[in-house]
Amino acid sequence: MRFPFIVMMLLAATSAYSQSYTKYVNTFIGTAPLTDPKILGYELPRGWRSWAGLTFPGSSLPNAMVQLSPMTEYGSGAGYEYEDTVILGFTHTNKGHWNLCNIPILPLSNPGEKFGSRFSHKKENAAPGFYQVYLDDYNVQVNLTSTLRCGYHQYTYKNNTGRQILFDLARANNRVSNWNIEQVGNNVLQGFQQMGERIYFYAILNTNIEKLEKKDEGQRSGFAIVHVANGQAGNVELKIGLSFVSIENAKQNLQQEIGNKTFSQVRNEATQKWETLLSSIQVKGGTEKQKQMFYSCLYRSFLWPALRSDVNGEFTDAKRQVAKADFNYYTEPSLWDTYRNKDVLLGLISPQVTLDVIKSMKDVGDKRGFIPTFFHGDHGASSIAGAYLRGIDNFDVKGTYDILLKNANVSGGARPHITEYIEKGYISDPDIPNPNVETKAKAGVSKTLEYSYDDYSLAQMAKKLGDTANYRILMARSKNYKNMFDPSTRFMRGRLENGEWIKPFNPQYPYYEYMYREANAWQVSFFAPHDMKGLIELYGGAKGFESKLDSLFTVPWNPKHIARNVETMIGQYCHGNQPDHEAPFAYYFIDKPEKSQKMIDTILNSLYGIGEEGLALCGMDDAGEMSAWYVFGALGLYTYSATDPEYLVTVPLFDEVKWKTSTGKLLTITKPGKGRSLTGIKVNGKENKGYFVPHDLFKNGGKIEIATK
Q1: Residue 323, φ and ψ in degrees, nearest 5
Q2: pLDDT tens digits, residue range 292-317?
Q3: Which residues does residue 140 pair with via DSSP β-bridges, in sequence order?
Q4: 529-557 pLDDT tens trace
Q5: CA–CA distance from 617 to each of 129, 520, 549, 653 (Å)?
Q6: Neighbours of 212 (CB within 10 A)
Q7: How, if at all, do strands 666-670 and 702-708 pair?
Q8: How many CB atoms lie within 10 A of CB 696?
Q9: pTM for this predicted structure
C-alpha cells in the first residue's frame, strides 16, 4: 500500500518547518478513484471513472489565482488522477470542474515524439504550498511552490546538457483557441493562452535561453520548447507571473510577489500562510486519521473562489473589459454546492475574502444586470444574506439587495422560469414519454424547492433593511416548496403545466434535469431548511416524518439506476452529491438527535479517506463543499440553514475544539467522555434551549459544553 509511505514523505517534507497543523494535510486525498460498488451503489460501466474527489495535489495559497499542479490527463476533473503513471505538464490554474488547467509547462531532457514522463508515487510528495516529483523519463527532479499570482518551478536535471522546457500552450482543460509566446530578453519569456478569456504570463529563468523553438504558434497542434543554454550547472529555476489583464500586469505581479526571493523563502511563506489559517481551529482528541482528514478538508475548503485581480487592483470584468477596484476581485463561488456550508466557513475564517467576493458578485450584477448564479438555483441570495446577517456588511448593501430582488423577480436572468414560479407557485415539467436520466427539461421540482429557500434568504435581508412589503411577499413565496408535495405518495413530485402530477412516477429513478437536478424524489423530499416545521406537517407530524426519513436511509438503492454524480448511497441517501446533504441532520427537528448522530458518524468515518490507499472521497469535492461538510460535522456545528446566523449542535469527533475567531475571541467546544448520543448542551455554563446556538459566539467568544451518553 502506498498511502503510509506518502504520509511518511509528507511528514518528512514539513518537518523542517516545525509546524503543528500543515503536517496533517494530505493534498492527495480526493485524487484516487472510487471503485467499490458497495459504496457507489452500482457497478461502474466500462470506461467510466467515478466523479468522486476530483481534487488536485499541487501548490496553492488560500483563494489564490495560481494553483500549480501536475497534469496527468487533459479533460479530467482536476487534471491529476492518482492511478495514472505519466505526467504531461504542470498547469497553473485549477478548480476541479473540468476546466482551467492553464499554461502547461514541463521540463524535458532528450524528449521523444510525445511529451510526458513516467513517474512514481514513491518519488512524489506534497504539502500545502509545495509539490515535488521525479520525472523518470527525463531524469528531472521537480519542486513547485507558489504565491497568490505566481508560480515558482525548480528543476534539477541529472545532465546539464540538452536541457529543455516545454510550454504546451495549445492544451488546457478548456479548448484553446489561440496562444502566443516570445522571448524578450536573454532569460525572459512572455505570452498568453486564450480560451474564452486570455491568460497572460511573464516568466524569468535563472539561466540564459539558447533558443525558443515554436511549432504551429496559435494552433491546437502547436507547442513551444525553450532550449536552456549549456554551461551553467545547478538548478534551473523558472518564476512565472499570471494575469487575466495583460503581460505588463503579469510582470508586475511577479516582481512584487516573488522578485528576488529564493525558492525556500517562497515555500516558507506559503507554509506559514497555511499554518496561520489552519491553526485558527485547534483540536484535541480523536484519532490521527480523523485529525488528518479534518485538516485536509479544512485546507481543501479554502482553494475556491479564486483571486482574479492583479497587485495593481486591475481585473477583467464580466464584460471582458479591464476594470480597477479597491477590493480584490474573485471568481464567483460554486454556489449550487457551497452556499450550504463552505461559504459560511469562508466568512468565519476569512471574512475579508467573503466581503471581497460579495463586492465581486455585485460588480457582475452591475455589469450584467443580475447577481451571478452557479449552475442551478439562485443561491447568491443565501450566500450574501448569510454573510450580511453574520455582520459582514461593509459593502453596498442596498445596491446588492436591489439586484438580488431583480434576480428574484425578473425573467431572462438569474432564475429560469421565474415567471411561471411567481404565477403558479411552482415550476412544471413537460409530459415526456419514457424519460431517461439525461432527459432535458426544467428540473421543476428542484428549482421550486430551491427558489423557495432563496426567497426566504432574501426575505431575511428585506426584514433587516425594513422592506416590509418585499419581506411579506418573499416569505409567502418561501412556502412554495409545499406545492411540489404529493400527499398520495409523500414525495416532492413533478407537475405538468396544468397542475397534474407527472405519471408514471418512480421516486427512486435519478434525473439530471427532469423534475429533479442530479437527484431522485427521495433525495429532494426533505429539503426545506428554512421551514422544517412546515415540512414535517406535510408528512403528518413527527411520526410520519420519522418513518419517511428512516426509509431514506434504508430503502436499498437499485444498482440499475446509474447516473454520474449520483453516487455513494446509504439507502436512497446520496452523500456523493449535494442535494440531500441536510438530510442526516433532519432527525433533530423531531427531537431524535441520536438518530442523526449515528448517520453523521457513519458518513464522517466511512465515506472520507477511503479506498485502497485511503485517498478517495465518496463524491466530487465541488470546490470544497464536500470538505466543508466534513469540517462542520467533525466540529459539532452545522449550518443547517446557511442563511440564518445560527448553528446546529451535534457531537464533535474531538474532545476539545478551540476556534480562534476572526474577531480575536476564542470559542471553545468540549465533549468529555466517549459517548456519541447528545444529551445536553450548555452555552457559557447555562443550559441551552433547543439544539441551535447563535452566531454571537463567534463575535464574542464563549464555551459550548456537549454532554453525551
Answers
A1: -130, 170
A2: 999 999 999 999 999 999 999 999 99
A3: 135, 157
A4: 999 999 999 999 999 999 999 999 999 99
A5: 21, 22, 25, 18
A6: 15
A7: parallel
A8: 14
A9: 0.96
